[in-house]
Amino acid sequence: MTDAKMPLRAKVATSVSRTAAALSRAAGRGDGSVIGGWIGLKIDPDLLAHLSTGRAIALVSGTNGKTTTTRLTAAAVGVLGRVATNSFGANMPTGHTSALAKAGSTPYAVLEVDEHYLAQVLEATEPHVVALLNLSRDQLDRAKEVAMMAQLWRAALVQHPDVRVVANADDPMVVWAATPPADPARGHFPPHVSWFSAGQRWHDDSWVCPECGSTIARKNDQWWCTGCALRRPEPQWTVEDDGVLDPTGAWHKIQLQLPGKVNLGNAATALAVAAEFGVRPVDAVSRLGTVTSVAGRYAQVDRDGRNIRLLLAKNPASWLEAFDMADEAPTLLSINARDPDGLDTSWLFDVDFAPLRGRQVLITGDRAYDLAVRLDVNGVPFQHVRTFDDAIRAVPPGRLEVIANYTAFQDIRAELDRVN
Ligand SMILES: [Zn+2]
C-alpha cells in the first residue's frame, strides 16, 4: 500500500516505528528493527498487514539456512525492482513490520520468518509464495517437537490455498507439511508446490513418518515411507556439480561468494522462489554472486597472517553443514550455553565430529569442557585454548576456520571488531 492510501493510524504507526528504529540505531542499540516494529504494532496492531498490502511478498522459513536464502532470494527478485527485506535476521513480526516501514513503498518483499511464526505471518502478509527449507531440532530446551512444527505449517497452508509453495523434496517433514490432503467439500485444494532438492545431511529428526508412524527408508537421494504413500517427490530444481538445473532442464553455473554445497542448495531455492515471480534463472544467477557475508556469517578477517573465517552453527543439522563448508584447515570450535543458545548441551552427542579428524582442532568457549568430552568420545584430538588470541597464536599462518554457536559467534565477532 502506498503511504497515501494507508489508514491514518497505520501512517502514524509507520512513522513512529521508523523514528524509534532510527533512535535505537543512534543510541548504538543494534539496528533498531525489533524496537521500531514493536512500537509500530502497539499503535496499529494491523500494521504488518497494512504495510504488506500492494506488495508481492515471498516468505522464507525453516530451521536452518533461512537468513542466507532470504538474502539470495532478495538478490534474485531484485531483477524485477526494489525489494524490502529483513536483512538483519529479525525474523518475527516486529522485525517484518520494521523492515517494511523502513523500506517505504516497494513492489516486492522477501521476508525471513521464524518457523514458529509462519502461520501468523502468512495471515498478516498474504504472500505470493512461501519457501519451506527444512525442519530439524533446534535448542532442545525450548523447541517444539519437529513433527508438531510440521503440523502447524500444514494447518497454516490449508488456510491459505492460494499461496504458492516452494519446498525441499529431501526433507520428509517438509514434504508432509507442504502436501495437506485436499477436501474440496470445504474448499481445500492441495497447494501448488514447486519442489527443490537441497539435500538433507541430518536425518535424525525424520526417521518416523509424520503421516502413519512407520519407518522412513532411504537409498541414495530417495526416501519413502515403508507404511504409506509418502515419498520423495520429483524435484524441479536440483543442484548438479557447481550449478543448478531448472525445470526446463537448463543448467546454470552458480558462482557464489558463500562456501559449501549447502549454499548451492540455498541458491537453487532462491532461483525457484524468484521464478514464482517470473524471474528467469538466467537473469538472476549473476546477482547471487553479489551476496557476501550474511549478518557476519562467512565473514573473513585477516589478522596476524591468519585468514579467519566465521561459520555460525546453532543446532545439530547446522554443525554438519558447517563441517561441509569448512576447508581442511585448522579449526576452532567455540560453544556457549547462554540463554539464546539453549542451556542444554547434550545435543553435542547428536553431532558426529568425525569429519574433523585429521585437522588441527582447537576448542574454547564457556562450555569447552562439554565439547572436550564429546570430541574425546568421538576420537577427535583437540587442544583447549582460553582466548581467541591464544587460538590465533596456536595455528600456523593461513586459513583458520571458526565454527561457533550463537553467543560464542557474537563474542568472537565483537573481539575481531575491536581490533579491526
Ligand atoms: Zn507413512
Automatic annotation (TrEMBL):
Signal peptide: none annotated. The gene is murT. This is Lipid II isoglutaminyl synthase (glutamine-hydrolyzing) subunit MurT. Residues 312-408 form the Lipid II isoglutaminyl synthase (glutamine-hydrolyzing) subunit MurT C-terminal domain. The active site is at 344. Keywords: ATP-binding, Cell shape, Cell wall biogenesis/degradation, Ligase, Metal-binding, Nucleotide-binding, Peptidoglycan synthesis, Zinc. Pfam families: Mur_ligase_M, MurT_C. The lipid II isoglutaminyl synthase complex catalyzes the formation of alpha-D-isoglutamine in the cell wall lipid II stem peptide. The MurT subunit catalyzes the ATP-dependent amidation of D-glutamate residue of lipid II, converting it to an isoglutamine residue. It catalyses: beta-D-GlcNAc-(1->4)-Mur2Ac(oyl-L-Ala-gamma-D-O-P-Glu-L-Lys-D-Ala-D-Ala)-di-trans,octa-cis-undecaprenyl diphosphate + NH4(+) = beta-D-GlcNAc-(1->4)-Mur2Ac(oyl-L-Ala-D-isoglutaminyl-L-Lys-D-Ala-D-Ala)-di-trans,octa-cis-undecaprenyl diphosphate + phosphate + H(+); beta-D-GlcNAc-(1->4)-Mur2Ac(oyl-L-Ala-gamma-D-Glu-L-Lys-D-Ala-D-Ala)-di-trans,octa-cis-undecaprenyl diphosphate + L-glutamine + ATP + H2O = beta-D-GlcNAc-(1->4)-Mur2Ac(oyl-L-Ala-D-isoglutaminyl-L-Lys-D-Ala-D-Ala)-di-trans,octa-cis-undecaprenyl diphosphate + L-glutamate + ADP + phosphate + H(+); beta-D-GlcNAc-(1->4)-Mur2Ac(oyl-L-Ala-gamma-D-Glu-L-Lys-D-Ala-D-Ala)-di-trans,octa-cis-undecaprenyl diphosphate + ATP = beta-D-GlcNAc-(1->4)-Mur2Ac(oyl-L-Ala-gamma-D-O-P-Glu-L-Lys-D-Ala-D-Ala)-di-trans,octa-cis-undecaprenyl diphosphate + ADP. GO terms for molecular function: ligase activity. Its EC number is 6.3.5.13. Zn(2+) binds at residues 209, 212, 225, 228. Belongs to the MurCDEF family. MurT subfamily. Forms a heterodimer with GatD. PANTHER family: LIPID II ISOGLUTAMINYL SYNTHASE (GLUTAMINE-HYDROLYZING) SUBUNIT MURT, MUR LIGASE FAMILY MEMBER.
